[in-house]
Amino acid sequence: MLLAIDIGNTNIVFGIYDAGEWIKIWRIQTDPLKTADEYEVIFRTLFTSGKVCKNQITKVVLSSVVPSLNREFDDMLFNLINQRPHLVCPEIFDRLPITVLNPYEIGSDLVANSLAAYTRYKRTCMVIDFGTALTFTTISGDGAILGVAIAPGLRTAIHALSGNTAQLPDVQPVLPPSVLGTNTVHAIQAGVVMGYTGLVDRIISKTEEELQQALVVVATGGLTNLFAHELTRIQSIEANLTLEGLQLIGELL
Q1: Which of 44, 159, 201, 245 has its Cβ near the most Cβ atoms within 10 Å?
Q2: Of residues 6, 18, 37, 109, which has the active-site annotation?
Q3: CB under 8 Å, gap of 24 or more: what pairs does 11-20 form?
Q4: Can 37 be counted among the known catalytic residues?
Q5: Within a domain: residue 92?
Q6: Are residues 141 and 208 in the same domain?
Q7: CATH code of the domain in which 101 resides
């Protein structure tokens, strides 16, 4: 069995892969202040409730964009299953069937997303990850990461708005009933959430214009379903795309 772990700025998503399928997938909140012991309690509890035999885990692949947690998870996994994780980092990128642009700058989650999308489509495609940051990663049909565009994620934008204004509240990132906000909550949701649909469409169209070809557009990330019926250019929503990329990386290590 493979344990794949994706440490993001907002959530930690991890799952157990065995015999060609995901047996269990969990999502917990990221807390950079938690210790290895505290995370071990969480993992041990979830494994027990999910009836996962930790002794059957033969490999761990870890992607992290929170460097302060790398050591904690290394210690936690050694204590829990007596294994060190394979960390997705530039040192392993040359073993992947994709070409990584700026290996010391690109996030390991974006590399995993790119590998999963390239493996599935073998065409020029874009992966849009709706997370703490909103990222657009474009991969060519021959597996080269062509470039990335990054914008603040929806929750990040809303938090910034409420945190830097005296009278605007923090609101949930959901679609309002109308673009004409009749109260403060709906006004923020109209501006940010509906506004982001235009941002996404524009990045897709400008990328296609520059490349002079159509893209296969894949969406992933925690807020993806919010846009499921608003963004007609998204052909596929893959909630577990990053984990699938980590599973593929695990096969190559």
Answers
A1: 245
A2: 109
A3: 11/222, 13/242, 13/243, 14/43, 14/243, 15/240, 15/243, 16/50, 16/52, 16/57, 17/243, 17/247, 17/250, 18/56
A4: no
A5: no
A6: yes
A7: 3.30.420.40
What does the alpha-carbon distance between residue 168 and residue 26 come to, in Å, rounded to a whole number?
A: 33
Query: Domain count of the chain?
Result: 2
- Which pTM does this prediction carry? 0.93
Biggest distance spanned by C-alpha atoms of the chain = 57
Rounded to whole angstroms, how far apart are CA atoms 63 and 70?
9
- Cβ-defined contacts of 192-199 (< 8 Å, 24+): 192/154, 192/157, 192/158, 192/161, 193/154, 193/226, 194/230, 196/134, 196/154, 196/157, 196/227, 197/227, 197/230, 197/231, 199/134, 199/151
- 206 lies in the same domain as 107: yes
Cα radius of gyration (the chain): 19
Same domain, 163 and 242: yes
Q: Provide the phi-psi class of 22: left if phi over 0, else alpha when psi is between -120 and 50, else beta.
A: beta
The dihedral over CA atoms of 100, 103, 106, 112, expressed in degrees to the nearest 10, equals 50
Instruction: Find the domain containing 25 and state its range.
Output: 2-87
- Per-10-residue mean pLDDT of the chain, 253 residues long, equals 96 95 96 97 96 94 97 97 96 94 93 97 96 95 96 92 88 89 93 91 96 96 77 89 97 92
Looking at residue 230, its pLDDT comes to 78
